[in-house]
Amino acid sequence: MHDTIVWSTPLRTRFRGLDTRDGMLIRGDAGWGELSPFWDYDDAESATWLRAAREAADTGWPAPVRDTVPVNVTVPAVEPEQARAIVLASGGCRTAKIKVAQRLPGGDVEPLSTEQARVEAVRSAFDELLADDDGPGSPSEPPADRTGEPASATARRPGARIRIDANGGWSLDEALRRLPVLDRAAGGDGRSGSTHGLEYVEQPCASVEDLAAVRRAQHVPVAADESIRRAEDPLRVVRLEAADVVVLKVAPLGGVRACLDLAEQVGLPVVVSSALESSVGLAAGVALAAALPDLPHACGLATAQLLVHDVVAAPLLPVDGAIPVRRPSPDPAALARATAPRDVADRWRARYHRLAQVLDTADAVGSAAG
């Protein structure tokens, strides 16, 4: 039996429809793991999160091939001024992932103008961050554009990247209408292969078929997230040529080793992202990113910035745009600040026992079949 601790914390900004985040820490011979599937996931889907937590607690992870992991700052669906402030306080991140396609109370997708203003605010923040390197007379002084005005630092320098994440919230028509506008808002010039504009759009539509259609119809690269981690057949994305990049999340996919195996099968560039875990859970994502043979893109692992409280003394936060590869353990003082209410703790303990039964049954069936 594992030792367990339930934690809970408010979020700094409403994210994914949540104002608080909670989960369970699990200790085994190899250290601490985390179990924190969202409450709208059923037991069958949540059991893979327990598999990942058991791997962390009982087995540990493969050896890293790098010491740090470059990360993006995550910008929720907030007003432009807050989006700008988040980037400026990001710990040196030079890549931003901006949430778009948010649902309004009536069920409609937020207006394109709202998304555009958010992207432009992030681009403005990057321009400010890069301005010190581009002052008058410096080797990288901004070249003039066709109007004679200095070009945007974000548009000019490949070191600043902007990506957007729709979480499958657009229809195909909405994606094709909105992407050119948002690409220009990010500094794009409408050309395929440009280093300006959007680095990629993550999960613009829900279905793999629509992802493939988006990819064929316009030039912004497409990343698949939900079509990988919530699909019965994640390789369908490859067969339909629906993505340029795949997003892997350790807990929903069953562990670091499972993700490494899937990355090898997919054969596309990988971005490792979090599932809004504490730093104990984030460490698994960092371990995956550190073990991948190639890591061409910044990873979405800087989400400890979204938590008011963490469960460790030194959270996994970016320094100069990267997170060091390390494995923090729970800290008593930090846990005291992140204590879960009794009813939340009771729900997690009941859920843990249900998921253990689901996972053990599945493993027994698999062993018998094998």
Automatic annotation (TrEMBL):
Query: Which Pfam families does the UniProt entry name for this protein?
Result: Enolase_like_N, MR_MLE_C
Q: Which residues bind Mg(2+)?
A: D165, E202, D225
Record's superkingdom? Bacteria
What sequence ranges are listed for the domain Mandelate racemase/muconate lactonizing enzyme C-terminal? 80-221
InterPro entries named among the record's database cross-references? Enolase-like_C_sf, Enolase-like_N, Enolase_C-like, Mandelate_racemase_C, OSB_synthase_MenC1
> Its Gene Ontology biological processes?
menaquinone biosynthetic process
The enzyme's E.C. designation: 4.2.1.113
**Which reactions fall under this protein's catalytic activity?**
(1R,6R)-6-hydroxy-2-succinyl-cyclohexa-2,4-diene-1-carboxylate = 2-succinylbenzoate + H2O
Picking any one GO molecular function of the record gives: magnesium ion binding
**Entry's family note:** Belongs to the mandelate racemase/muconate lactonizing enzyme family. MenC type 1 subfamily.
Task: Spell out the protein name for this chain.
Answer: o-succinylbenzoate synthase
Organism of origin: Myceligenerans xiligouense
Q: Highest lineage ranks of the organism?
A: Bacteria, Bacillati, Actinomycetota, Actinomycetes, Micrococcales
Gene of this entry: menC
